[in-house]
Each structure stands twice: as structure tokens, then as C-alpha cells.
Amino acid sequence: MATKLWVGTDTGNEGDWATAANWSPSGVPANGDDVYIENTSQVIIGEDQSAVTLDSLNIAQSFTGTIGDDSTYLQIGATAVRIGDHSGLSQPAGSGRIKLDLGAAASAVVIENSANISNETNKPPIRIICNHASTTIVTNKGKVGIANDPGETSVCSYIATKYKDNQDSDADVYSGPGVTAAAVVVSGGKHTMAHAGPATVYGGKLITIGSGAITPLTFKNSKGDLRSTGTITLLTIDGASEVDCRRQTVARTIVTCNLDPGGTLHVNASLTITNGPSVVNNMTMIAS
To answer: Which of 57, 124, 261, 263 gets the most CB atoms within 10 Å of its CB?
Structure first.
């Protein structure tokens, strides 16, 4: 196992991950290595390194180059991935494009920060693809897409959207319709969920879109904007939460709704609640 620092300036091979001279010490990273990418604006082109599983891949906030391009990801496995770490007083801008395809490696991904501005319009600066049922993705701050683009898929065990300083705005995460996740947990920021599966919201806001069935769905001291059309088998809203279902006008169903005292649910006539409060046109329910 070795520690490798990205340099990327070998003449004629600038940005080529697979060039030995682009690394310090010289040599292309191999299985079990720890890779550090920091304090440089040198780009890394998208390459197939999927046969390699690093011990760790560390991309600091001081890296202001790009990884991947409009159509390709850097394909590489890593047991641990950290993006956006920085210990100095001034905050670097970060990278406007980090595209990682972690493949079938079981990865623990932690995103501490991202750039505010992406190199691609209407796409987050950090995009992740993964395909292992044990992979976890935790975002503490920044703009992140998981299987963000049309046709992309990802499999993981856990997606967590958290916060560092500002619970309302630190994190902005999108998990696309091709995601299969055993759990989505939100405790800060905003998470837009376009796929089926369970979700628990302890803070911040969850937005659901698409047609996937979401169950169970639980809100605790948080906010929800339910725009998806898939059936919600069990919706639980505690007394400190507010959930809005009015933005979607297509017929949809909540099988069981538990609305705790003090909790708020906004509905319209296109929503059917099979077991729970009856819906009459547009109304706001506040449990007592």
C-alpha cells in the first residue's frame, strides 16, 4: 500500500490518470493505495480504472480542477471516499465538476463540501454513481447528484443528507429515478428524491418527485413537499412537521396517514387517504 499525490503535469500527458509521471511518487495508483488530490487546478480526464480499488480517495476543497468530462466519469473503486475537506481559514472554491463511478466497490462516501458553481448548467458539481448494496453516501454540505443524469442507475444502502452550519441550506442532494437505496435519511438541507424506497426526515426538507412508491415515509421536526405520484403506504407526520401535497394534481394515494397533534398536512382534492383524515378539496389539516 502506498500514498499517491496527484500532480498531473507530465508533458504531453497532462491530466492522464494512467501516466506514472503524473503521480508523486511516480507510479499509477494500485489496489490498496491512498490517493490525495489537492492544491491544484490540473484536470483529470475520465478514465476506466475500474479494476482498481483504492483504500481511500481524498479530494480536497483546494482542488479546483475537474474530474471527468461532459460524457465520462472517472471509474475507480475506493473503500473510503472523502470530498471537500479543508482545514484553513479561507474557503477554496472547490471543483466545478467531480464525476466518480465507484462501480461494484463497497464504498463509504463522505462529502464535506462542493463548489457553489457547476461546470455544467443545471447539474450539481459533484456526481456519484455506485453499484454495491453496502455503499453509503453522506453529504454534510454541498450540491450532489446520485445517478443524476437520465438512464443512470445506482445501488447503495444508505443516503444521508445532513448539515454543518446551516441546517436549512448547507446541503442540496438529488437522488435520481435509477437509485435503489435501502434508506434515505435527511437531517438537514434539501434532498430531492426521485426514486422508490423508504425515507425518514429529522430536519431540513424532503421533496419527492417521479412515480416511485415511497414507504414508509416519516417526518420528525421537518418539512416535506410531496410531488411524486407513487403510492405512499404509510405516512407519519409528527407534531413539529409540515408536509405539503398540493403541488401535484395527478390522482395519488396515501394508504395510511398518521398525523400527530400539532402536525400540519396540506392537501388537495386529487389526493386520497385511505386510512386517516378525509380530504375535501383544498385544505390544511392541523391535528389537535
So the answer is: 57
Asked if residue 195 lies in contact with residue 176, where contact means CB atoms within 8 angstroms, the answer is yes
Model confidence pLDDT, tens digit, residues 138-175: 999 999 999 999 999 999 999 999 999 999 999 999 99
Of 261, 250, 212, nearest to 233 by C-alpha is: 212
Reference 257, options 272, 240, 241; nearest CA is: 272
The span from the CA of 225 to the CA of 92, in Å, is: 33
Q: How far apart are CA 267 and CA 282, in angstroms?
A: 6
The secondary element (H helix, E strand) that includes residue 256 is: strand 252-259
Give strand pairing partners of 160. 138, 185
Going from the C-alpha of 146 to that of each of 94, 124, 173, 221, 287, the distances in angstroms are 19, 10, 8, 25, 36
pLDDT tens by residue, 93-128: 999 999 999 999 999 999 999 999 999 999 999 999
Q: What is the pTM of this model?
A: 0.95
Specify the residue for cell string 394508504: 255
